[in-house]
Amino acid sequence: MSTPKLILSSVVCLFLASCSTDKTNEWFVSHNGNMPSEERIAQIAVGDNQNKVMQVLGAPSSVVSLDKNTWLYMSSDIKRVAFFAPSEVKRDILTIRFDDKGKVTEISRLDKNCGAEVNVHEDETAAPGEKQGFFRKYFGGVGQYNPLGGLGK
User: What pTM was computed for the model?
Assistant: First the structure.
């Protein structure tokens, strides 16, 4: 085989090898979180206590700070390719609520379709009060520092 044909066939092979397939896309997806298997989730029922939930499912990903009786198990798959922004491919949230006695009252599942996009605005929030000028802001404390704390009087 001549050199130009060899180079051309090598370029074609490299080009075809670089085409995207489903298997190639899996290489860029990372799994995050602590989601128990479906078999373990099926073992939990309304009325079970917190100890059984902890033994079967393990520690929750998060406990709601304002309601210690709500446990969350979360997982997500994030796709990262080169310099492009990461995108969430899959999200799964298991919520288990307990009553004051530590018994399961509700088990619910949420996925990515249940969520809503939140737009973050970088506008400033005006603080109430007097707006300081340049000199007051940077020189307002000049002369007010007393290293002896009034001991010299």
Answer: 0.57
